[in-house]
Structure formats: structure tokens, C-alpha cells
Specification:
The protein is about 20% helix and about 35% strand. The chain is built from seven helices and 22 strands. It is globular, with a radius of gyration of 19 Å.
Length: about 350
């Protein structure tokens, strides 16, 4: 098995970002990413998909789109659409129609920044997801790096602090996201969680002060999605693209916040008497299974069953838990960084049936 570090959800000058696909490629190579998925608003840009190289490094750029109804006020309910065979922004007014169209076109869909409240100090409105009756989507963006600024930025002073000291902004996925995910999983659905950058490389102005807010490379070193794949990337676009989207569709991935320390090397697996399972997979409880957690470094590791913590380890790099109880098992890892206990890894679940 191999691990690929992917940053997804970002914008260029084709929508409201300030950089080009070339700028993104350069920043992603600097940050040692394996792949990026660029998702401009309501446009599926043709052309830039493929490998970018810098010396011996290479990085795969894939293109999706972020679709929402621009006539809706406020502009709620944003959907990340990946790997669809064609442009689907025309379906935006009806989110269920949109999701059905994505599925018909062989794509994946992730509900973006589910809880994205108003932030009056920077005149930003609430653009949360508002259409929870929908069915058939692939998953949710459990952690959105940029929109956490709106949640943490309780006043203009907080916002200014986070603009000048961006390393402090990300704490963990909003509790509203974790609660919603638990609720969706409890209903029996499989819901894949991913981490999004929502990188724009925005320019901020405050009186005489100018600042590029969160350049692409900053985001690429922060909240990412790590995929567990059968092999490393081959350099062949179509095969690699399929492997990445297959892993995302199956939930063979975890959300990592790499700024406090690389989350490469994390894994969560289940060993039964006759079979094994990884994140996103199902396994029969049978006469008992062993859940194995591997951490890149000693940190606070919590195992959750059906949304409730069942065991905590604070001094281990390998953690095991034996169970014969069916349930949805997932892992959250926290570590100290810049004076606070922050989220570090959020695994996809193993579904013990
Ligand atoms: Zn959005
Ligand atoms: Zn976005």
C-alpha cells in the first residue's frame, strides 16, 4: 500500500482566487504534495489537468469544480464535484438534481464547508449547507481550512491576528461538522470525510495594511487529505487519476493537519479472523476483531464508536482495541501546537457490521 498527500478545494483567477494553475502547481511542488484538486466556482476548467515537474519532484493536478446557485441569497449550499465527465453548474438550483447528475456522470460529490456562519466583522454572510434532505452524495468536507477563519474570527481583532499569524487559525474541525457527521453515520449511511484547503491566496486590505491572506503554499502545508492507495503514483495520468478517485470514493483516506507535524504514516485498520479492513471498509464483527491504530508520533489518540469515545491513549504510537461489537469506529488524534490542543488526524470510519 502507498500513501498520497492530496490538497483539494482551491480557487484560481477562473473564479475568486488570485493565482493561476501554474502558481498552484509551483506551491504544491514546494509543499511536497502528491496531488491537488482545483475546484473553481461553477466552471470546469479544461486543460491544466496533468503532471507538473520541478527537477525530480512531480505533482499531479486534477480539476473539479465547486458548484452553487449564484442566484440564491445568501449563496448557501456549496458542493465539491470531482471526476464528473462534464460541467454541471447548470444543475445548481436544485442540489438533489445536481447530486443525481454527478452520479450519472461518474463523479463524486462532497458537501463543502457544511457549517460556515456569518462573520460580520469582515462582512461575510452565512454560506452553510442548507439542503440536508439530499441523498446520494459521497461525503462531507469535515475540515475546511479557510472557513475556520470565520468561526475563529469572533471580532475584527481576532481576524487581524489570524491574518498576521496564520499558523494560529486552525484548531480542529468545527464541532458542528463532527456532530453532523456522527448523525449521518448513525443513520446507517457511509459518509466519506475529506479535508479541504479552500485556498484562494486572497489579498486583504485594512487601512494602509496589505497582506496576502494564506498563500497557496500555506494551505498546502496545513489541512490535507491522505489517501491509502494500492500503489504509488505511476506518472500515467488516467491510471493515477482513477486510483485517486477510487480511494476517495471508498473513503480510503484520513484528514491530516500537517502544519504541527506531518501526519504521514498514520493508519487505522481492522484484523478479523478471516479478513482485514482499512478506513472506509466494512468488516464482519464475527467472533471478534482487532482494531489497530498507528500514529506517526506519540499524541492523544481517541477511538470512537458510533460517535462516542471508547478508549483514549496518550503515550503510545501503536494502539489496539479488541471488540466483537458492531458499530462505526473512527479515530481522532490531537496534539499540542502553539499553546492549544489541536486536531491532528481524523480517520474515516471502519464499519463493523
Ligand atoms: Zn464554498
Ligand atoms: Zn471554495
Amino acid at each position: 500500500m502507498a500513501e498520497l498527500v492530496v490538497s483539494m478545494h482551491m480557487h484560481t483567477t477562473y473564479s475568486d482566487g488570485t493565482g493561476s494553475h501554474q502558481d498552484i502547481a509551483r506551491a504544491a511542488l514546494q509543499a511536497n504534495l502528491d496531488a491537488v484538486i482545483v475546484t473553481d466556482h461553477n466552471v470546469l476548467v479544461q486543460g491544466p489537468e496533468g503532471y507538473h515537474k520541478d527537477g525530480r519532484k512531480r505533482m499531479l493536478m486534477l480539476i473539479g469544480e465547486e458548484v452553487h446557485d449564484q442566484a440564491r441569497l445568501p449563496q448557501k449550499s456549496h458542493l465539491l464535484v470531482l471526476n464528473a465527465r462534464r460541467e454541471l453548474a447548470g444543475f445548481a438550483p436544485d442540489p438533489q438534481n445536481l447530486i443525481d447528475a454527478v452520479n450519472r456522470e461518474g463523479g463524486l460529490s462532497f458537501i463543502a464547508h457544511l457549517y460556515d456562519p456569518a462573520c460580520p466583522s469582515i462582512k461575510e454572510v452565512d454560506i452553510s449547507w442548507a439542503d440536508w434532505q439530499v441523498q446520494g452524495y459521497t461525503g462531507i468536507e469535515l475540515w475546511n481550512s479557510l472557513s475556520e477563519l470565520k468561526i475563529q474570527g469572533k471580532s475584527i481583532y481576532h481576524i487581524l491576528f489570524y491574518i498576521f499569524f496564520p499558523h494560529f487559525v486552525n484548531h480542529q474541525p468545527p464541532v458542528e461538522h463532527l456532530n453532523k457527521w456522527n448523525e449521518l453515520l448513525a443513520s446507517g449511511k457511509k459518509v466519506v470525510a475529506v479535508g479541504g484547503a479552500d485556498a484562494h491566496a486572497l489579498d486583504a486590505h485594512a487601512g494602509p495594511l496589505h497582506r496576502s491572506v494564506y498563500p497557496y503554499e500555506f494551505h498546502f502545508r496545513g489541512v490535507t487529505t491522505h489517501l491509502i492507495t494500492p500503489t504509488a503514483l505511476s506518472g500515467e495520468l488516467e491510471a493515477d487519476k482513477k486510483m485517486i478517485y477510487d480511494a476517495l470514493a471508498a473513503g480510503h483516506c484520513f484528514v491530516g493537519y500537517d502544519l504541527p507535524g506531518s501526519t504521514r504514516g498514520f493508519n487505522f485498520t481492522a484484523q478479523g479472523r478471516e479478513s482485514t479492513a482499512g478506513m472506509g471498509d466494512e468488516i464482519a464483527a464475527g467472533s471478534g476483531i482487532t482494531l489497530n491504530i498507528k500514529l506517526p508520533q506519540v499524541s492523544e489518540c481517541r477511538l470512537l464508536k458510533n460517535g462516542k469515545v471508547v478508549q483514549v491513549w496518550k503515550t503510545r504510537e501503536t494502539c489496539t482495541h479488541i471488540t466483537s461489537e458492531p458499530g462505526v469506529y473512527r479515530v481522532e488524534v490531537y496534539r499540542q501546537y502553539l499553546g492549544a490542543l489541536r486536531g491532528w488526524v481524523f480517520s474515516n470510519p471502519i464499519y463493523v457490521r
